[in-house]
Design goal:
The chain starts with 12 loop residues before the first helix and ends with a strand. The chain is mainly beta and 241 residues long. The longest helix has 19 residues, at 13-31. It has helices at residues 13-31, 37-48; strands at residues 65-70, 78-82, 86-90, 94-97, 107-112, 119-124, 127-129, 137-146, 153-161, 169-173, 177-181, 185-188, 193-194, 202-209, 216-219, 222-224, 233-240. A hairpin with a 3-residue loop joins strand 2 and strand 3 (86-90). Strands 9, 12, 13, 15 and 17 form a five-stranded mixed beta sheet that branches. Strands 4-1-8-6 form a four-stranded mixed beta sheet, with no helix packed on it.
């Protein structure tokens, strides 16, 4: 423990505190060399080591994964996915963060769910490993530029809240396409809808299978996406109780 160097590691609270303790003990041993090594070591263990935490814990913590979006045209939504387990929708430039954390030394992989209609986006710093102390990651960069589009394609998703752990709920669009949510968060229907395809311009999302012991109610569940007021992502809200 006491061989630690206070250089770059001193930026980390736990490493800095360990270095402080070791330096203090070393001084005490040198000062007490001609007296009582045993007494000095007892003082170090009993009196100094308790401050190693320096008011905080050195145990690893889970980290949030996030970053910034820039260049996203007004009215366009970009869908981001981390580790193929969580999807979020971002419709403004600025910071974003995934709600599901990644444990210390765990990996993250932020990608685009799909290229949004009306924009071309790229992800930088999207993959990596959380450090050993679980420091939050905030340097994922999503850069977008306006892009011409031949087809007016859009995605349809449901943001679920209140779903009890272990439960699931299934949604249908227009009585056919389905998506099942097994946790709280955003779930996207696998089909991409196009205004050029007859019937795709209208959506009507319903609950096909309610979770055990719960009922889910929907907001913004139906509507029509038109070329005059086109949006590339429609978000339905499901509250389960």
């Amino acid at each position: 423990m006491c061989g630690i160097d206070a250089g770059p590691q001193a930026r980390n609270l736990a490493a800095y505190c360990t270095h402080l303790v070791c330096a203090t003990c070393k001084f005490i041993r040198q000062y007490s060399m001609k007296r009582s090594n045993l007494a000095a070591m007892l003082f170090c263990v009993v009196g100094v080591l308790p401050i190693a935490g320096c008011g905080g814990s050195s145990s690893p913590t889970d980290a949030t994964i996030g970053g910034t979006v820039s260049g996203l045209p007004s009215g366009i939504t970009v869908l981001l996915v981390n580790n193929n387990t969580e999807t979020i929708n971002v419709n403004t430039n600025g910071s974003f963060v995934f709600s599901r954390k990644v444990q210390a030394r765990g990996t993250y992989n932020v990608t685009l769910y799909t290229q949004p209609t009306g924009a071309s986006c790229a992800v930088a710093n999207g993959t990596g490993t959380v450090n050993q102390v679980g420091e939050n990651v905030a340097n994922v960069s999503v850069t977008c530029t306006p892009a011409a589009h031949a087809f007016l394609n859009y995605s349809l998703g449901v943001t679920v809240s209140g779903l009890a752990q272990g439960n699931f709920v299934t949604f249908l669009n227009n009585g056919g396409d389905s998506v099942t949510a097994n946790a709280n968060g955003l779930f996207i229907f696998p089909k991409t809808y196009a205004l050029q395809v007859a019937g795709d311009e209208s959506y009507n999302v319903t609950v096909s299978t309610n979770p055990s012991g719960q009922t889910c109610t929907l907001s913004n569940a139906s509507g029509t996406n038109t070329s005059a007021n086109f949006v590339n992502f429609v978000n339905i809200v499901a509250n389960c109780h």
